[in-house]
Amino acid sequence: MQTLLIIAIVLAAGATLFVLVKGVIGMAQGKDVTGMRSQDLMRKRVMFQALAIMLVVLLLAVAGGSGG
After folding, report:
1. What b-and-e string marks burial along 30-54, b requiring 16 or more CB atoms within 10 Å of the CB?
2. Which of 43, 50, 61, 67 is the most exposed place for a label (fewest CB within 10 A)?
3. CA distance 22 to 64
4. What is the model's pTM?
5. 67 pLDDT above the threshold of 70
6. SS (H, E, C) the chain
7. Residue 56 to residue 38: CA distance in whole angstroms
8. 12-15: long-range contacts (C-beta < 8 A, 24 or more apart)?
9. What is the pLDDT of residues 11-44, one digit of tens each?
10. What angle do CA 54, 14, 6 make, to 5 degrees?
């Protein structure tokens, strides 16, 4: 269970990093005049960050509960 959670945390963190880099590159290019794409990427980044944090909390709860 813990291994699965660690893999999920790494994937969520990787997705967060990917969306963050994609957003920074998009802003640097300056093609998004309205800012709609930047807003969409920001929402996705926050969602992936929240998912990663929830998975870390779950991992800590599972690891703390099995430490008999």
Report:
1. eeeeeeeeeeebeebbeebbebbee
2. 67
3. 36
4. 0.83
5. no
6. CHHHHHHHHHHHHHHHHHHHHHHHHHHHHCCCCCCHHHHHHHHHHHHHHHHHHHHHHHHHHHHHHCCC
7. 27
8. 12/48, 12/51, 12/52, 12/55, 13/48, 13/52, 15/48
9. 999 999 999 999 999 888 888 778 888 899 999 9
10. 50
